[in-house]
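Fold Annotation — chain and its backbone

Fields — amino acid sequence, structure tokens

___
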Amino acid sequence: MNKARWARVLIVEDSPTAGRVLSEGISSDSRLAVAGVATTAKDAMAMATLLKPDVMTLDLMLPDQNGLGVIRNITQRANLPIIVVTSLPAEGADSLPFQALEAGATDVVAKPNGDAASLRRFFDDLNERLVSIAVTRSVPTHAPIALARAIPMVPEAHLDCVVVGASTGGPPAIVEFLRGLGESFPAPVVIVQHIAAPFVDGLVRWLDKETPMWISLAEDGVRPQPHHAYLAPAGCDVTFAPSGRLIVKKASNDRKGIAPSADALFESAAETYRSRCAGVLLTGMGRDGAVGLLKMRSRRAHTFAQDERSCVVFGMPAAAGRLGAVEMFAEPKVIASRLRRLVAKSERMA
């Protein structure tokens, strides 16, 4: 094996044609090597034990069983991240792709159609996810991040809104965070989650089923309500008008192809709410949200990021940490607990 190919991928795909396409696309990245290709659930579990890959891609429809059994079996006995690659619809909360996340899958991506441009975009995205996850699994991804000089906070300020950004590994982290806030949390939550367009509506339904808050897709002109969370639509940025109503519009081209943008949401929250909001950056690759979180912190908003130990990929939180944008690193449920205490303190002082 080429020594540069340090991340090994096990492909689980029952279609020989699709398996070959995946193998060729993944192998085209000099950082990745295909450890093997399994066509059944039985072979997948055996090869995972024998080959010890860094990460697995998994089709949910296999000839001997669906992929949920593979996910549950492997996550119970090994620390092997699994990216589901599927063409199955994800419109309902009980659809297989979201059952896969519940079972322990790390991420879900949609299979591309057959044209060359779609394949190129698909493998650009998939390979970055594979590399980022493999790095996080094998070695600490970053040197310890020292928190920057403290910026005076305003702990007694009323919390008008919480904004959240997440990418790879984000859906389970969002569930943990919203469960931690609870159904009586008095501020609305607005969320940017990087996920393929076919999964957005299903994600809304899944979050609504799995968490105590009311979850809906963000709509232009809506005033966010307490006890509710709003998810950014695919390909659209969500920002705040001065009145606090949501502005939902097609993403601009100046965000390097990231849509929806956590930076756009966070920067808008900083301008509209200043110290009366909180920003939360969860697991994900890249650096979306880091600059926006720094702007929030400069306005004395409370800023949090998921810690490296609990992240699937520490990229986005780490980028924010290096800028000095993070007030506290913690697990999603701990961040939620901290926000509940801030709200309770504010209400006692009112």
Remarks:
- The two ends are 65 Å apart (CA to CA).
- Residues 161-349 form a domain with the Rossmann fold fold (CATH 3.40.50.180).
- The chain has a mean pLDDT of 89.
- Residues 116-138 form the longest helix (23 residues).
